[in-house]
Write a structure and sequence with these properties.
Layout: H1 11-81, H2 84-93, H3 99-110, H4 114-145, E1 149-156, E2 161-164, H5 176-184, E3 189-192, H6 196-200, E4 204-209, E5 215-221, H7 224-235, E6 242-246, E7 252-254, H8 268-274, E8 279-283, E9 291-298, E10 303-310, H9 311-318, H10 320-362, H11 377-396
Antiparallel strand pairs: 1-2, 1-5, 3-4, 4-5, 6-7, 6-10, 8-9, 9-10
Helix pairs in contact: 1-7, 1-9, 1-10, 2-4, 3-4
């Protein structure tokens, strides 16, 4: 008869080493988890710092792109307006529009005969018409050569449009603010307003005054040429990267549309930029997740610029490697624990069986045999133990009872 299971009396001897093995596995797991968790925390902090620097640098880059685009348009129009020949042509073309010129012509006509006055007036109208045609040709050449240029026009100091690449503009009124500010400013005026798209075809307007300050040259531009690269810049920040460009009233020129666009004017980073502030802040848009937003004012043009990225995108982008390391460490620790328990049960189970067999033999039972299940050291000992029991059993008929100690017999007295 062989032993089929470990008896209850020997469970303690197998359980203690197994518990020790499990404790060792847990300690190994903790040794793996602690540095991984610490690494994850440090990695997340680095990811947030890198994202902050990236958003901040992108905002600076976007601002420089817009400023550069406005400066290029301004420089081009200033070259046109400051050309003395062009200025003279415009002055001739608008001679009959300017009140002072009309009074001068009227005074000269009053000193002539009716026939002479009529001929002088006709000659002036002809010269003005020819000059206007030359000016208009020059304006169209300028407009056609500039991508995104919607129209170029000449406005008199009384804010009356007298020459324009859009015929429907002529004899209309542009409104006094833009013209008067251009006439009074020491340098070209750059103005960006979303509502100018309906009036002039583009939100960006550059105005340059003449040297004589009698007229203003105005060019209106759509901003697609600069908005495209700006949107790509926002997308480069990740799946939640976004760029917002507004005019001085907070009306979006680039960025979200629909319902979100109506709330941009109240968005904190936008209001800060409109006030002339620059910085970076963590904030939560209305009905939206928290974002990291860098805001910049664009003084020339009166615009506000915001570059932002959602915080959860920064988190998810910063931890995949740490999570993989964490899961890998846990898996390795658990695998080690399982192997320890498995090997321990096989090894310690045989030792427990031998312990039980020894107790049976000491009681005189030589019929039991130790189980032999492999070729390891425990199996070798069990096989040798079985051989000893077999020889002992064959020599005494199958039992071995310990001899009783001899009785104490008193020695006979001497003599």
């Amino acid at each position: 008869m062989t032993l089929s299971e470990t008896p209850p009396g020997s469970r303690l001897s197998t359980r203690v080493p197994m518990v020790s093995a499990l404790i060792a596995a847990l300690v190994a797991t903790a040794a793996v988890l602690v540095p991984v968790v610490a690494s994850r925390s440090a990695g997340q902090q680095r990811a947030e710092e890198e994202a902050r620097a990236q958003v901040d640098q992108s905002a600076d880059l976007a601002r420089e792109q817009v400023k550069g685009w406005i400066a290029d348009r301004t420089s081009e129009l200033e070259c046109l307006a400051s050309d003395p020949h062009f200025e003279q042509e415009v002055a001739t073309a608008i001679a009959l529009v300017d009140p002072e010129d009309r009074e001068k012509v009227a005074g000269e006509q009053a000193r002539r005969t009716e026939e002479e006055a009529g001929a002088a007036h006709a000659r002036l109208e002809k010269e003005a018409g020819e000059a206007k045609a030359r000016v208009l040709k020059r304006l169209k050449t300028f407009s056609d050569a500039r991508k995104g240029c919607k129209r170029v026009l000449i406005a008199h100091k009384s804010s009356i449009i007298v020459i324009s690449t859009k015929a429907a503009d002529e004899n209309g009124s542009l409104g006094g603010t833009l013209v008067s500010s251009a006439l009074e400013a020491p340098e070209p005026v750059a103005h960006v307003a979303k509502n100018l798209e309906d009036q002039l075809g583009g939100p960006a307007v550059v105005a340059c005054r003449s040297a004589a300050s009698k007229f203003v040259v105005i060019a209106a531009f759509g901003m697609e040429e600069v908005i495209g690269p700006l949107n790509k810049l926002g997308s480069s920040l990740g799946r939640t990267g976004q760029l917002i460009l507004t005019d001085g009233r907070g009306t979006p020129i680039a960025g979200p549309g629909g319902k979100a666009a109506s709330k941009i004017a109240e968005y904190d980073p936008v209001t800060r930029a409109i006030k002339g502030q620059a910085g970076i802040v963590t904030t939560s848009p209305e009905d939206g997740p928290p974002v990291l937003a860098a805001y910049r004012p664009i003084q020339r043009g009166g615009m506000a610029l915001v570059v932002q990225r959602q915080l959860d995108d920064i988190t998810s982008a910063g931890v995949p490697v740490q999570w993989l390391a964490l899961l890998g460490g846990i898996g390795l620790a658990l695998l080690g624990a399982i192997l320890i328990v498995f090997i321990g049960r096989r090894s310690l189970g045989g030792i427990g069986a031998l312990s039980h067999l020894a107790s049976r033999v000491s009681a005189g039972d030589l019929s039991e045999r130790a189980p032999v299940t492999g070729d390891d050291e425990v199996s070798y000992i069990a096989r040798a133990f079985n051989d000893v029991l077999a020889r002992a059993q064959s020599g005494d008929g199958g039992s071995m009872v310990p001899e009783a100690p001899a009785a104490n017999v008193p020695e006979p007295p001497p003599g």
